[in-house]
Amino acid sequence: MQINSDFSQTAALQLNHYNWRTTPQVGVQRVMLDRIGGEKARATTVVRYAPGSTFPNHSHPGGEEVLVLSGIFSDQSGDYSQGWYLRNPPGSSHAPSSLGGTTIFVKLWQMSLTEATHTRINTNDSANWVKENNYHICPLYQDKGEVTQLIKLTPHQCAPHHLIGQKAIELFVLTGSIFHNKLEYKEGSWLRVPSNKQTLIKAGNKNATIYLKVGNFKNIS
């Protein structure tokens, strides 16, 4: 399966265009944002668990990245409410579930195979935020090929050019809205822009919070 698999092109999806699809697991639905492969795929997805949904224990050979958008997501390591960021390295395994239901933003097979650390960050904790060049930033992960963080933008504020520059970016709008090339992306929208495209990102009329990944995505395992 190939969905938004050409990383030389801009790709985007607005919340009002979500196409929820059933998964092999009862009670679990997903919106495929980008995907290369079948059930074992390099994928970026929004996943929705109905209350009481469970997944059997399974492994992630290419790693897994999770941001909890709503509800409570659970696995053997704990219970994670809205705002928690989880990073499970290649070769890890778990049995996820949600007693009351949850929606999560998930990325699979997009980590360096040398990554070995489990990460758990509560982005609701102010201690995990720093102020840098007039931006409030919650660092999530960084290595030579990737920088991932949450950024809070004030109305009409541009995303940090010193970070983005002409690099490839991917973002998910958590609150508020942002503009890219005069198009507005509201809460729940996903946007991926290649390095050869203009990447001026600007908040709308209200405060905005975005998940932002900067890196060379097509070369990530």
Automatic annotation (TrEMBL):
Origin, by domain of life?
A: Bacteria
Where does the record place the ChrR-like cupin domain? Answer: 9-111
Listed name of the protein: Anti-sigma factor
Name its species: Psychrosphaera haliotis
